[in-house]
Amino acid sequence: MEVLEKVNELNEKLKDNSAEEIVKFFLNEYKNDAALSSSFGAEDQVLTHMMLKFDQNANIFTLDTGRLPIETYSVMDNTNLKYNIKVNVFFPKSEDVEKLYKSQGINGFYESIENRKACCNIRKIEPLKRALKPLKVWITGLRASQSVTRVDMPLVEWDDNFQVIKVNPLISWSEEDVWNFIKTNKVPYNKLHDQGYPSIGCAPCTRAVKEGEDIRSGRWWWENPEHKECGLHAK
Question: Contact, 49 vs 185, CB < 8 A?
């Protein structure tokens, strides 16, 4: 069966299922060929809890860019301890980071979109490609209401860039749904969320947002909204 036919079939099959049912389906169907890429944000923590509920050995990995906030490392540690796991960590290649410093300096990503995307490519995209290469299914915490770049994302899609089926179990969830789940299940979360950070990435590219602002407005705040993807979830 062609991959796009498979994606369409999965969307039809799972369209009325809950997020937990969707997670369970892919874990049963694909085992460790399905993995969650976690940034330890609220949505990813929800999915981590769901996955480990069904499979203590579920495949969960993260990208350590080398410039994460200390709070992100804290929730990583708390998650490992609570669930008795060790999340798999992928790092950027040191030689690529060294070349990046030589070409644009330590904070050159503020100077242009091209510089910022070059930094994202080295610190996030290349490690993600390595992480996804052996997999068939990529599970993400994307929600449609997070940004203008995600409004039309389906539950299941084919990611041509990474050559993998991408599954977004929380695509229809609201922010309230996420936090209700976290509180009910006592899921560890990044304490920056309590300080006005709804979306958390690298420390120099993330800031708190004001009440009423778009939840992604604290990411790459110096750019226009339509540019605010790093390439991990490009349309």
Answer: yes
